[in-house]
């Protein structure tokens, strides 16, 4: 049994069973009428997705997986909805086809959004919505569309979930920041996020402070403060709407970033978050994470948030698997796996020659060729010359044959691909 996910005390932690059957067996179980059988099958599928890449299986069974998961989200119990949402997020992480990714986004987000507001919902649906959007959205407009839905939930006074209001808000802000981290500042809408800085800086609950700091720090790093400042005192000199029509002046932009920086650092000296460390030095620099024998370098705070969110969703084992074997993850984190040598190398020389030395008899001009000399040597020497140079059994012929056989063998080994050719 393994536990995956850690939502800071929320209900997104799942206990996964050990599995003994192939994944195809558990997919067939999703068609059963018994809810408990479907729930057990979903838990087993999640376990398999988290322990071994299923790229080939997903490619062949994409439609079945997608619509079985969606059916469970639409009609299942609260537990089945949560498990199916989790499995759907794992599916989104495994898809490499853009057409399939777009289909996943188009078919999933309406159902997940609806489930987000259901009375028996939990945080797995929210995390799945964020993951599906992060990996499957085609453009920034699609990402911001989901961010707006999450933003609306952040500002709802009533808590419609089964979790506590604070836990729910932590999950919402984390998901919103996770999606924001995937966008470029210049692509963001000029009207959607007005007042975000004011809202995050006004959160007084100590439990909410770290996620609010992370959001503010990310906004600071993106370098487009006027899109988040709204009617704050940050926009002292002009209406911020003007900044959508003309470039921000460097002085206003610098002043806005400085104000955000002060908000992050003020009154949070006891926090141990990465956001505070970033704000204190005003330059994130780099953070390193060990991946086996290699090191993953996080060069931006956006990557730190992405790592934190995805690792929470996948669990330690699942994240290690995907960062090593999933090209989508390697692209996100700019991580390149070093290929290990098989230990067997074939060194091929650049050039090989057969060298023959011949001692010229006295009186023979130096410019004469080998055959020109033959009339001037006796019969015995001619026989020796013939045996050394002309005969198929001569040392020269045997050496030439050995050299050709060696080159032929090297060529065959290179074609098989088991050896590395070295100069």
TrEMBL record:
It holds the Pfam family IFRD. PANTHER family: INTERFERON-RELATED DEVELOPMENTAL REGULATOR, INTERFERON-RELATED DEVELOPMENTAL REGULATOR 1. This is Interferon-related developmental regulator N-terminal domain-containing protein. Belongs to the IFRD family. Residues 23-234 form the Interferon-related developmental regulator N-terminal domain.
